[in-house]
Design a protein that fits this description.
The protein is α/β, with parallel strands linked by helices. It has a single domain, classed as Aldolase class I (TIM Barrel). It has 11 helices and 8 strands. Bound molecules: cytidine-5'-monophosphate.
């Protein structure tokens, strides 16, 4: 499998909208993957739609966060969907990461670090007394220890992650130049993220809100 440069976050409940996203993005000069998250996978037709996709790079963003047995069982339960990538929160703990890795087979297991929607203030509210950078470094070490295939982090922490994690680094928290952050806190432009060392980026609303084809052209222009 060739590594995708851009994963489009297909965050919708509409299969029609996803068909349009795929149609308008599949002949680009760089590899595209499609990320399906909790919204689509839990929608009425989500699972069936994904099961019928052929010759696409797919990413099941389940963001598992549970005890080892449940994480492993959940991965087994979606084996038939043949995802290329699946996510698990690193905060599930080393044992859960190892249990998940044991059953993930040819699906690449991605460890999710601190969400890009959180900042140091939000971490304090939760009760963490380390800052984002320290926590992400610690989590990247755990991902390496559990032999995960990739890490998801904000583009601001790529350099930190790279110190201890040597495989794929996938970064959401991407905004095209001049755009508002919205609910995301730790963001960068696509170009900056790749410059910092991202293997691939995840981009959702910057493409899917408004005029999709115009937004895709804007992304292509920014990546030149
Ligand atoms: O629309 P936007 O580009 O902000 O979407 C980002 C996507 O990446 C969403 O699907 C979100 O669930 C996902 N994601 C994230 N931050 C993480 C992990 C995943 O935004 N740390």
């Amino acid at each position: 499998m060739t590594k995708p440069k851009v994963f489009i976050a297909c965050d919708t409940t509409s299969s029609k909208k996803i068909e349009r996203i795929i149609k308008e993005s599949q002949n680009l000069k760089f590899n595209i993957g499609y990320k399906f998250g909790l919204e689509f996978l839990n929608s009425k037709n989500g699972r069936k739609f994904v099961s019928r996709l052929k010759n696409k790079i797919t990413f099941g963003d389940y963001k598992l966060a549970d005890i080892p047995n449940t994480c492993a069982s959940a991965i087994k339960a979606v084996k038939d969907l043949r995802f290329n990538y699946i996510t698990i929160h690193i905060s599930s703990g080393l044992k859960a990461l190892k249990a998940a890795k044991k059953v993930s087979g040819s699906t690449k297991l991605i460890g999710v670090t601190i969400l890009t929607s959180l900042d140091n203030k939000s971490l304090k509210e939760i009760g963490f007394d380390k800052n984002v950078k320290k926590l992400v470094l610690n989590q990247a070490r755990l991902a390496a220890k559990a032999k995960l295939d990739a890490v998801v982090c904000s583009p601001l922490e790529i350099k930190i992650v790279k110190r201890v994690f040597k495989k794929e680094i996938i970064t959401p928290g991407i905004r095209l130049s001049g755009e508002k952050r919205g609910d995301q806190k730790r963001v960068m432009t696509p170009k900056q993220a790749f410059k910092n060392g991202a293997t691939s980026i995840v981009i959702g609303r910057s493409l899917t809100e408004g005029n999709l084809s115009k937004n895709i052209q804007k992304l292509i222009k920014e990546l030149k």
